[in-house]
Amino acid sequence: MIKKWYFYSSLIVIITFLSLGFKPFNLKTKPWFLIEKTDGSEYLLPSQEKDDYPNLNLNIPYTGNHLIGFKEAVAFKESQGKYRLVNSLGYMGKYQFGSKALRAIGIQNDKAFLKDPALQEKAFIALLSKNKWILRNEIEKYEGKVINGVEITESGILAAAHLGGAGSVKNFFKNRGNRRFRDAYGTSLRSYMKAFGGYDLSYIEADSNATIND
User: Distance between CA atoms of 180 and 169, rounded to whole angstroms?
Assistant: First the structure.
C-alpha cells in the first residue's frame, strides 16, 4: 500500500514538473513582402511583376524601381556594396566617392567617411540632391527623349553624374551624345544612362546647398 502511494505521488510530482517546464509559445510569421523605410519612403519588395525589373540581364540584385532599388543597383555596380572598399584610383566606399565629391557635400574626413556606413548613405542622397539641382534644366529638357540610342530618364542622368560628374553630363547633352565620356576604367556615361534608367527618384529634392556634417 505504501509503495503504491509512493508511486502515485512521484508520478504526480513528475507530471507537474513537466507541465511547468514547457510553456506555450506563439509562432509569429513574417510576410514574404517586406516594407522598408530606409530613406523616408516606403517600398514593397520584392515585386512579383517582371516588368518592374527592366535590367535583369545585368545580374544586379534589384529591390524595385524606387530609390532603394536605384541605390543598391548603383552600389553593386560601383563596389558590389562594400562599404570599406577603396579602388586603385582612391575612390571610396559603397558608392565609390572621390575626395572632391565629398568636399562638395561638406565631408572633410575621408577616413571617418570610409568607416561609417550611415554617413555613406547620407552622402549618396546629398550628392543626388545636388546633382539634381545642377542638372534640373537637362532633366526637364531631355527626359523621355532618345539620344544616341538611349532613352533619357532622370535616374539615368543622375547615375551618369555620379559616374563622371554633372559637368560631363552637361557636355554629353551639349554634343548630343556624340562625344562619349569614359572613366579611367572605360565605363561610359551612356552605359550608366541606359543601365540605371527608369527608376523613380521623385523622393529626391533638388537642392543646390545639399550638404551633411561628418
Answer: 10
Pick the more confident residue, 52 or 134. 134
Q: How far apart are the first and last CA of the chain?
A: 82
199 grid coordinates: 527608376
Torsion angle of the four alpha carbons 169, 51, 96, 128, in this order, in degrees rounded to the nearest 10: 50
Q: Say if residues 207 and 136 touch (Cβ distance below 8 Å).
A: no
The model's pTM is 0.70
**DSSP-assigned beta bridge partners for residue 150:** 147
The residues pairing with 92 across neighbouring beta strands, listed in sequence order, are: 86, 97
Residue 37 CA to its chain's centroid (Å): 12
CA distances from 8 to 19, 22, 117 (A): 16, 22, 64
Residue 124: count other Cβ atoms within 10 Å of its Cβ: 22
- pLDDT given for residue 39 in this prediction: 40
- Tell the residue number behind the cell numbers 572605360, with chain if given: 186
Question: Given a cut of 90, is residue 43 above it in pLDDT?
Answer: no
User: Pairing between strand 43-45 and 146-147?
Assistant: unpaired
Give CA–CA dist 148/43, Å, rounded. Answer: 33
Give the highest mean pLDDT range of 2-11, 189-198, 205-214.
189-198
Residues 57-77 have pLDDT tens digits of 445 555 578 999 999 999 999
